[in-house]
Hints:
cell outer membrane; disordered N terminus; 22-stranded antiparallel β-barrel; single chain; Maltoporin, Chain A; 5 helices; 60% strand
Amino acid sequence: MKQTKFAFLIVTFILFSSSIALAEDNSIKGNQTSVTMEPVTVYAAKREGTAKEFAGNISVLDDLFIETRGIDNLENLTRYAPNIYIKDTSSGGSIVCRGISTIDTSLFSPMGLYVDDVAYPLGYMSNQNIFDVERVEVLRGPQGTLYGKNSESGVINIVLNQPNNEQRNKILLEVGNYYTARLGISSSGPITEDKLYYGISMQGLTTDGYNTNILTNDDDVYGKENFNGRGTIRWTPDDAWDITFNLDGALRNLGISSLRYMDGQSATDRHKVTSNESDKATEEEIGQSVKAKHTWPTMELTSITSHRTFDREHHHDSDRTAKPISYSDLKMSMESWNQEFRLASKGKSNLTWLVGLNGNYENVDAGIDFTNVKAFLSSSRSGNSESTSGALFGQATYEMIEGLRLTGGTRLEISHNTGKQTYTPSTGATSYKNSINDTEFLPMGSLAYDFNPNITAYTTVSTGFLAGGFNFYSATDADSFAYGAEHTLNYEAGIKTNWFDNILTLNLTAFYTDITDKQVREAVAGGGVGAWKFSNAASAHTQGIEVESSYSPIPELKFIAGFGYADSEIDKWTTTAGGTTVDYSGKKLPWAPEYTYNLGVQYNHDSGLFVIADLLGTGEQYYDAANELKGDAYETVNLRLGYTTGDIEFSIWSENIFDTAYSVKKVATASGSTLVEDGAPMTYGFTLNWNF
């Protein structure tokens, strides 16, 4: 099958290219021109620079890449970034980087996510919709010395288009199978030239989804109705000041009937589920932020004030059968305030630097009710936590001699988190509380050398941590309610190269990361079915490589390739399961694909015709600590054919064109059966982009 898919990509490209070549009046050779690509400008280090100057591994995916491939969310985009995997399932989300994952029901992700300098900390926020984006920067490895909120394994930085003196308008219309439609509208430009600007963008999505409830014959049980919008006012009263006000929000109505039995008497076929409940989730997300920047000739001061709220409710058939046995009702809400100040050097010099101060407050309310036909199995949990933290962070780079740069940085963070919960089983209510206090010192260092303008080598040592928290959904007492922080020590070395005026780029990175105080889920002795605690009982490591390359032999043709390998393994973890002592040492970390890769080709003809073909692969992973629930490796092929004329681009496309079957989640039930959540089937449709 793999050979068939590679052959399909090659044959598609050859046939399309040949048909174009035969239609031309002049020979290709006679019209061939050289291509020179400019280095990509990034702000990942909070200062303007290039990807090669960044002290670590970074991938940059720009607006042209996103738009021409019709990418609508972060999960689909990160498949083009090696060793990045977004877990987006009915139970929640998380961003996995270099094999560093988290507990399935944890609220927070080990990888940071920022949208225009504002942190989106919850795992539920991981798979953001993508529209009107300037670029997305993917930074691997701890980034606590650059970003206000701590990040254990890396950062995804989404940079939105900022309004300016140029009037820009965009309309996106997309329709596809499963009654799918997406509409996006954005507009930005000057209110008063050189002084005041506006920006507005809105996007809506509706789909019935690809699952059918065979009990009710309802084919809309995994559907979505999403709306997100953003409004921006930017004010530049003079050359020194740049002030931006943002208001954004999202409403989501989600069908979450996705788990089905893959074995046992209740087993069903792929994308066929059985539920006697109306499985639904609703989410409401609202944010406000003010970013003020003041510039002097040699430095720049930035202040970012943000406030975000997030609310989620869901109703779910817990037993996944035709019988009314059990169901769950979850409620979760978060409110956060964040203030960040950054002072950074400006311009080119032997010494560049940044120093920042960040303060954060988060309040989380979370609870879940389990209702069972047998009353003694019913229970409810209702809890709350309040967290305050402050961090001082900074990083500096000094060019000791021409081409040799030394970078050092540190982060000092102090946090206090208190939580309380009431657990009500059939025997009566019990209340408890706990607190977590952390003081973290996180240094980093890097050495980079430019062998020539086209080859840069670097090595980096950095530290990170994932804050502790509270087990809102399965705790039974104070001991099983709270868990502490986990820590990482990351070593990496890499080489960044470009050849022939950036016609060919090739970057290679190797890394090794030690994980201590690993947050894991363990059974509560004597607690019964579904009684879990989160603890810091394990140590682990992950090691691997990342390769990224692009090649444009002529202006019309571009090849891209990426490969990431992450061997994540538990070094030490002994626990109790089913009343028996088990040793998970040597097992693979759950929710961590062994590898990811992408291979793509794009051809743009002078007539406006274009073709894009991508092969996207994900390696095997396990969904449990015992490594008994395995997700097999899989690869999907996407194809897009389009035409651009003036300001309008339209295309027909198909994703997972071979309808590859794969899983994104598996769960073992108390009865010994296995539940599975299927990945997306083959989809197809039509997209129109109008930029004017």
